[in-house]
Structure formats: C-alpha cells, structure tokens
Amino acid sequence: MNASAPTEEVRNSEPELGMWIFLATEILFFGVLFFAYLIMRIHYPEAFAAASKHTDVVLGSINTAILLTSSLTMALAVRSFSLGANRACAWLLAATFALGAAFAAVKFTEYAHDYHEHLVPWLSFAFPSAQAEGARLFFLLYFVMTGAHAIHLIVGLTWVGVLIVAVSRGLADSKHPDALEVAGLYWHLIDIIWIFLYPLLYLVSRT
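^ thats the sequence. predicted structure below, dont judge the formating
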C-alpha cells in the first residue's frame, strides 16, 4: 500500500473543500457589490429611499419565501440521499427545481415591470424626481446585483436538473454523497445572497 496515496476520506472531502473555496470567492465578489451599494447609499440616502419605493416589495417578499422554502427542500434532499432514500431525494430535488424556476419566473416578471416603468438605467431611464441621479445609481446596482444572483440561480437550476436525472436513474451512490452536498452548499449560497439583497433593495424606504 502506498503510504503517500490519499485516503478515501481525503478524496471524498476534496470536492467539498473546493466548493468552500469557490464560495469564498463568490462571497468576495458580492462583497464588492455590497460595499459599492453602501458607499452610494451614504452619498444618496434620499435618492435610494425614493428609488426603493419603486421596487415591488410584494414580489420581492414572495420570492424570499420561495427561496427559503427551496433551501429547506434542498437540505432535505441531501439528508434523504445520505440515508439511501433516492426516490424521496429525487422528489425533493424536483421540488427544489420547481421552486427555483418559480423564483426566476417572478423575478423576470418584475424585470418586465421595471422596463415598462422606465427604471432600467441604460434603456430610457426616467425617474420623476429631483433624485434622478441617485435613483439611476440605485437601479444600476439593483440590476447588477439581482442579475448576478439570477445567473447563479440558473447555474444552480442546471445542476439540480442534472442531479435529478442522476438520482432517478441510480447513477449516484449514497456512499459518495459529495455531488449532493456540494450542490446543497451552492444552493444555500444563492439563498444567503438573496437574504442580503432583499432588505437592501426592497426595504430601504420601509424600515
């Protein structure tokens, strides 16, 4: 036996370690956006409050509930898979996928409303206020941050879709739950980022 060869336990932990490193880089990326938001909000407090009133807090709240529920179904899916309950895992993954898709549908519906209300900074932006300059910066950050979040969500949906097929066809082994655990970590990152975005973008003028 080669003493220098990695043990099975070490090999199994490598994907999860890699995901934690990736998550750290993603947190740094969004951290830069949050810092930019903080600086701009300090400079334009009244404009950010006025602009936030034009976000749809009802749709934002619905999406928050949807994503929190999807985080629960993902956690239950990972748990079911570790117990060898592949059928339950597949159904829970399907529920996670459906909830994620519902979140995306609501978000893109909200984007359509923003477009019709001329709130997209690079597409005939029109804000009926003396705070238009600050409001433009608010919506620029709004679209950049929620757009980056949406891209992460689409990646997560693709990943979950692949896992549904793998688990349903018995291609995944509960003895090596890395694929589910790593996907679960990624999905929870999507959830955590939105938990920060929701109050920053929707509740500025409502707190």
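The helical segments are 8-43, 45-52, 57-82, 86-116, 132-168, 178-202.
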